[in-house]
Amino acid sequence: MSGLFFLAAFFAVLTLVILVIGVSSMAKNGDFNRKYGNKLMQARVACQFITVFLLVLLAVTAGNA
Length: 65
Hints:
It is a single chain. The protein is mostly helical. The protein has 2 helices and no strands. Helix 1 (about 5-30) packs antiparallel against helix 2.
């Protein structure tokens, strides 16, 4: 397996962790959510973009092998 696969898997897991933190903080609706809710959403979207980009790159390079 290539390092690209492990990098994509890392960002996928990181996306999941950020999503769980964001949803749980939203459910509690406390000061943490007011302070970091938007930043968590931005971080999740960025990690999702990187994950999808890496998976597409992995698919393209696997097709050329």
